[in-house]
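Hey, resending since the last one bounced:
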Amino acid sequence: MPTSTAGPSSERARDASSGFTLLELVVVLLILGIAASFLVPRLRDPETLALSSATERLANTARYLYDEAAYRRVPMRLNIDLDHQTYFVTELGSDPDAPEFVPSTSLLARPVALPDAVSIADVVLPALGTVTEGVVFAQFSPEGWADPLVVHLRGRAGGDATMAIDSLTGRTRVADRYVVLDPDDDRRDGAARDREDGAFGSGDGAGSTRSTGSSGMRARRDASR
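The structure tokens again:
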């Protein structure tokens, strides 16, 4: 009595349905690799994200002051308190008999305390060099120039970031590492500026301003606490 048996074609079909082919595995791995390239940057360490966010927020404040001083025709200052790890904004008061800088009333200029995972390591000013304590400020003029300022921030996990205001262009730039800049604008040649631009990448902040050179460097340390 004849009986039916599975032929070669039936065996191949059963083997194919039992798992992936080599081509299918390659396609799956390719898709996973593309997905990982988008997901991994979003899964960075929270302290690294806090450092990046704090640096960008400080840079945005500086850009705001640059624009606001020119728009309102009022000198403004970015004040950095290294002892308390905060920064705040002041502006020249309207009393002509008692000209002094007073806290700004703008909602975008409220005092900011750095998160616990981030600290200001130091501030570099041409008139003082590297400062690690006390209160320092950089001034933004209605005429379109800004005091040069370099702020180095540090994450609790050990990462570094830099925010810099260029006195010659008014640009506010950030970098995800500790960048050392030459604070003496009169001695920086084109090659030095190109190296600095490379350290910060192609990012740019505020628009250009007129050159101020050394005469525009009025940032100083506030002795009061």
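The CA atoms of residues 25 and 111 lie 55 Å apart.

Sorry for the duplicate.
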